[in-house]
Amino acid sequence: MADHILKKYRFLFFILISIGIISGFSKKLENLGSNIVNSYKIWQIKQDLILIKTNLDLEKSKQGLYPPEHRFSHWFKENLSKKFVYNFPIDRLKEPYIYKTLNKRNDFFISSSGKDKIHGTKDDIVISSIK
């Protein structure tokens, strides 16, 4: 009788063990997928910053100075809004870019807070006019 009960519940036991294994791996797969997506977003942010810098450099060649900080969002909408599929000044991680001018608007830098979403840390993504 015990053998019959064991056979009857063997399939159920197999299913429960399979669910346990899958659920253990699913968290790892979810984390791996999330890391891949975030890495791709970081790469996209770097490409976006290059495009923004190129257009800022064109603006400086025409106007003699980079746009002032308070007009940056407006400048971006006028010059680049059709090239981006998200609302500026938000990066692809949905965090704000920081734009600062230096040396009386002869230089600039833009930063994204990076993966940790905190500005001023090691993983910030920064591009500037300063070589």
Mean pLDDT: 84
Termini separation (Å)?
82 Å
CATH class placement: Alpha Beta
At CATH level 3, the topology is Glycoprotein, Type 4 Pilin
CATH architecture label name: 2-Layer Sandwich
What's the helix count? Answer: 2
The poorly predicted ranges are none
Biggest β-sheet strands, sense, barrel:
3 strands, antiparallel
Strand order of the largest sheet: 1-2-3
CATH superfamily: Glycoprotein, Type 4 Pilin
What form results from the Cα inertia axes?
A: rod-shaped
Give me the Rg, rounded: 25 Å
% residues in beta strands: 5-15%
The helix/strand order is HHEEE
| Helix percent band | 40-55%
Please state the structural category: mainly alpha
Oligomer: single chain
User: What is the total tally of β strands?
Assistant: 3
Write the layout of secondary structure elements.
Blueprint: H1 2-63, H2 72-80, E1 98-102, E2 107-112, E3 125-128
How would you portray this structure in words?
It contains two helices and three strands. With 131 residues, it is mainly alpha-helical. It is rod-shaped. Strands 1-2-3 form a three-stranded antiparallel sheet, with helices on one face. It has helices at residues 2-63, 72-80; strands at residues 98-102, 107-112, 125-128. The protein has one domain (2-128): Glycoprotein, Type 4 Pilin (2-Layer Sandwich), CATH 3.30.700.10.
